Amino acid sequence: MSDNEHVPTEQGVRPVLAAVDGSASSYQAAAWAAAEAVLRKLPLHILTSGAVQTGMEPGMSLGAEDLEWLRVDAERVVKEAERVARAAVPDRDLVITTEVSFELAAPLLIGRSGSAQILVVGSRGLGAFQRGLLGSVSRAAVHHAHCPVAVIHDSAAVDPVSAARPVLVGVDGTANSVPAVELAFDEASRRKVELVALHAFSDASGLDLPAFGWEVGRQSAEATLAENLSGYAEQYPDVSVRRIVVANRPVRSLLAESASAQLLVVGSRGRGGFTSMLLGSTSNALLHSVEIPTIVVRSER
Predict the structure, then answer these.
(1) Entry pTM
(2) Which CATH superfamily is domain 16-152 in?
């Protein structure tokens, strides 16, 4: 599909949007997005940008031969991403559309996210050269997208073993984590797995707390977590919830627990975040350190 054609989806249907650029993590993103689209019973739209992202001086333009090469290469990328997506969910009646655009990748994804159910990106683009760094386009999407953003690392975790693991959600006790909790329940319900809700009530190690402080903090934290989860049992009676309360740094605790989960869901800002911040320090650190797919849910505020 060329960049000036409309996405062939039903009116009012917000598809799962997968951004690909030919990198390994973006193909993993296509695989995860395909599985997510099947779970949500939505079409999958695979999008790439054929535009030159960096390195051009103002006023420079490409010749017809170079533009054609970029178009052909971009078509190759979306075709391979579609193949990967089909392989991830074989024998499924999944509608997949592909598109090549020549808009710059970051503003393209941010703009399209307004009409998507969820945006799925790889953790590192072709320009990433150091393991663990979040690619610039993915980082821009996480900060500015108008829908939840799933960041996929080296594995899409769509194999049967991973698919049986629980969904993990970070609960910080603020309104910012409410959309994340809602989405986590929905994901666990669709995947038919347990939900692990983790609340870290201290930004220091539990070893630094006196025994009295630990007990008071634990009781208060358990009450906060219970309050944050109340109401969802009736809405999602099929979801078994395991609550974890720790006196530890949220990043350290969620990172450790993510080793036995298939998906991590976090809010965009934590309890210490300023309202002007687009991404809290905890969410940002987790995106750079966890290995499993991670969904960042921004507060509507």
Answers:
(1) 0.85
(2) HUPs (3.40.50.620)
